[in-house]
Amino acid sequence: MPTDIATRALVVTLKAPSGGAKTTAEISALTGLAVRTINSIYARAIHRGFEPNETPLRLINEWLEDAPRSGRPTKRTEETKDLIIAKVSRDRYGREKSAADIAGELSLVGIDISKSTVTSLLKEAGYRKTKPTRKPGLTTKMRKERLEWCLAHQDWTLEDWKAVIWSDETSVILLHRRGGYRIWRKAEERVTRSCIRERWKGSSEFMFWAAFSYDKKGPCHCWRPETAKEKKEAEAALTAINEALEPVMKTQWEITNGIRRLGLRNLPGKKPDWKWNKETGKLIKKHFPDIPLGTIKTTLRREAQRGADNISLPRSGAPRKLTEEQRDQIYDTVTTDPHITTRDLLDSVDNAIKLRSLRYLLREMNKRKWMQKKRVALTPLQARKRLDWAIRYQGIDWRRVKWSDEYMVRRGQGVRPIWTFLSPREALRVQDVSEARRQGAVRQMFWAAFGHGSRMPLVPLVGNVNAIGIYDLYSVILPWFLQPGDIFMHDNASVHTARVVKALLEELQVQLMIWPPYSPDLNPIENLWALMKAEIYRLHPELTHAEDTVATQHALVLAAMEAWDNLEERVLKNLCDTMPNRITAIITAEGWYTKY
């Protein structure tokens, strides 16, 4: 541990003849410093100009301070640090820049700095790369109303708030749990059935209303889906209300419009006692030049201590709090119930173990908390069909297959999460919050196809997708897109299995691939849809929060077509080359879930 400058001054003063004139041993007893350290401090001060016989004694900092260390000059200057922080905290676009981008911008102004240095400087300043905080978007009017509401209620006492009844509505979907939750599993268990969260099609959705206050839980109400008769009755009642309301609203409008028109708005070392020679491992060092000297010495010493049994020496430290039976109990619990929370698992063990110790133990067991994977729900029959399909096609040339699919692109859907540099207290600054807005009503259905080294342009579909539309599309595209020996793939949607479509494929002599049910993980085009959506908002970020207009619909179509064409050919080929691995994964899982 370094000695502070005040202690060094004390040592020099006590040892000087004109000062304390004490011996080194006496000074060591007074200060607790080693004899070697005391001699080093005193010799350094004399070498730099200290006069021990001078009266009065005179000491300056330069005689006592450490000498400057050798090495290249540091790049971590205060000016550079301030410049980096200024770039990051300027606005939301600065927050979203990566460390590599910031290092690149600094190189343009003559500051040669690496990405890792930028990252470490930001961490020293308290910044971390985190997901942005998501909050509902607020307009100027909304902010004003929120502020006025808070000002009006800031003087309310706790008793006043206890009298408030809070109510709200929410949408509830059967067989669906909102938000992500984590499970206990090993890294290789990601597609084990008990670690899969199944997605069921055709789930029922209903609206739920409830209310509560400080000491009471109010009633609740569920709205069941409307029948056709109830819809007609509601429309009739709404029409009657509107007829009665229209004259009143018209009169208010006329009055407001009239007022508006009037404009009334308002240190030497000790001698070595051990030498480096052949007896201490020098020969080993020659044979293994990459092994550190300290490691060789430690290994030879420990080998002599272990003896013939070669057993590791007992480690120091506190004894383990958990018995082997309790450790086995914990392992069995997280294996049987992977959804159990850490707190519940801690409560199930009859031992005063800390939460942190439990987490370390689970890591030793190779059990970590993972986000549960979501997959389309499969029945045993569907899993068997997937296995049969994999066995049937496991030996084919996958570069001959042309993959196709339809996909709905909705404005605002598929935007990748943005990571920003933030310190904890800046998480809710206005410019650092990502506004969580509802997905827009503007949407467009597209059809696309690709193979190894080929792709079709993205085709926007007009109106509802039906068998006639697919017939017209296939009759124009397939004759020139498919080459002799190609295998065409489409899924089992009703528009693909219609008689007119089957007849067209037979007429065109298309070699069709039999497709298993509920198998989006086997179609590599599914990976392209996610890449395409992310590319849309990278090329056109303005579409993220665009208004739901006809112009936005047209811009979304053009952006999707541009994003599709912008996907690298290398990505398409790599996806096709993953098919042998997908087949192997299906066979290994006996038709059940895979990582794809």
TrEMBL record:
- Coiled coil ranges (UniProt) are none
- Give residue ranges for domain Transposase Tc1-like: 83-155, 327-394
Q: List the source organism.
A: Fusarium oxysporum f. sp. cepae
Listed Gene3D superfamilies: Ribonuclease H-like superfamily/Ribonuclease H
Q: Where is the Tc1-like transposase DDE domain?
A: 403-538
Protein name as annotated: Tc1-like transposase DDE domain-containing protein
Q: Name one Pfam family in it.
A: HTH_Tnp_Tc3_2
An example GO BP is: DNA transposition
Task: Give the molecular function GO annotations.
Answer: DNA binding
